[in-house]
Every structure is written in C-alpha cells, then in structure tokens.
Amino acid sequence: EVQLVESGGGLVQPGRSLRLSCTASGFTFGDYAMSWVRQAPGKGLEWVGFIRSKAYGGTTEYAASVKGRFTISRDDSKSIAYLQMNSLKTEDTAVYYCTLIDYWGQGTLVTVSS
Amino acid sequence: QAVVTQEPSLTVSPGGTVTLTCGSSTGAVTSGHYPYWFQQKPGQAPRTLIYDTSNKHSWTPARFSGSLLGGKAALTLSGAQPEDEAEYYCLLSYSGARPVFGGGTKLTVL
User: Which residue stretches of chain A have pLDDT < 50?
Assistant: First the structure.
C-alpha cells in the first residue's frame, strides 16, 4: 500500500525558514518523481514543484511563486522527499501535500505569521 | 503561465448526469496535456479519479468517466450519489513541465 506522510509543518514568522519532509512507503521510491502541492485556507490547489527520479536526472521544477525561495530534494536511501522553504511570506500559509499525483499524503499545515 | 478554467459550481440531482469541463488559455486541451481529475471533500486530501484523460484507478467509481470534449477535458458523472458532493479539480501538464491546476468546481448533489 502506497503511503505518503508529511511532517515538519507549524507556525513560523515571515522571513524565516522551514523544512517539510515526506516519508514514503509501499513503492520503489527512487523510481518516481515526487511533487509538492499546496492549498491556502479556503482556496484551490496550487502546484509548488517536483523533483524527477535519478533516472531522469533528479532535476527540479518550481512554480514561479516559489522559485528561488523553495528547494525540493530527495534521499532515495531513506525514501524521503524534502521541501526547504526559505524567506517565507504570509501568502505561503497553506496545507502542503506531498504527492505522486496518483497518490496523496494527508498534508501538513504551514502558518506564516508574526 | 497558462490559466486552466473550470466551472466554479454545478448542481446535479441524485441519479442525474453532469459534465465538468477543464479548459486551457493556450488553446484546445489535448491528450498531450495528460489531464488529471481529482476529488476533494472538506477536510480531506485530494483523491485522484482520472489520469491521462480517461484512465481510472482501481478506487474510481464506475460512474465517473473522463474524455476530451469540445477542446476541453471533461469529467462526466453518470448517476450522481450524495457522496459525490465535493470539489473537483483538473490538472494539465504543459511543455516545460510546469503543470497547472484549474480553480476547481464545487459540485452540489441536490
């Protein structure tokens, strides 16, 4: 059974950093691209970015709204994907989902507020 | 960046049929956009219903189907059930590998 479990969310002040983790199980993690999607309170889904598998270079793509501030990485030995969020803004407040697109985690809430 | 458009809200009667659509500001939606459809109920994570235009997962109820219709991706629900009341999102992929979600359709079964 595929499982994706996000962790690391919480309350953080504007301008600070936070790192989210996505622990995966039930599939060969290294074979798949991993994506992050967020949802601001009462709003729709917004694609944040993804990291390709090593077979496809392990490269990353980001939404314009987070490019240069957020970094996605992966540790295939631990089956974990990371979302490093720097220079956080109040508009980054959202539930952050780790997803294979066909499978989704339950999300972790990030609140950016002073 | 492309804009993906969906109906903000739709209503369907129990047992009825409704079609949700997903359009692109760049032109006609094709199979090359690999359309996905997701269902999200309040307080829950999204659930993938349809991938690559019309393919279903094992958990996708048979009453849901995906297609291309009039230059858009479409999700048709035939025989709506009360539990189908939810928000539905589509996702399109574009060259350059930056996918875009639609704004979502709030479906009411009433």
Answer: none
